[in-house]
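Reviewers of the previous submission asked for a worked example of the structure-prediction workflow described in the proposal, so we include one complete record here. The input consisted solely of the amino acid sequence. No template or homolog information was supplied to the procedure at any stage.
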Amino acid sequence: MSSEPILLSSALASFDALWSPRIVTRVNDYDVRIAKVEGEHLWHAHDDTDEFFLVLEGELHISLREPAGERTVRLPRGAVFTVPRGTEHRPYAPSGAAILMFEPTGTPTVGDRHEEIPGHVDATIGHALGA
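From that input alone, the workflow returned the following structure tokens.
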């Protein structure tokens, strides 16, 4: 990781791929990832970890399947939300967004349980910034 400050706007400008997060730094055993997103991701769940989202640009929607039923949270720029471990969820950004995620190193973007992975979703554990 870099020993210099990282400007998130510059990091976001360094790639165009959607749903393909870049690791900007690490904190202990956690990745700090950024991603550009537009359209739908896929329904998935992370069995052993929560998933933290911070919206940097645009608006992100996250549909959740909870015991009480399905609901959608809408996150405008500057909002944060944590999806609890084991909760099926599907992020989507109708008009595009840039997000920051904080999760354990090695966490797959498609979770531990998921539906079929569409071609526009990068099933990864994150890419190095600048790769």
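The longest helix spans residues 8-13. We consider this example representative of the routine output the project will generate in years two and three.
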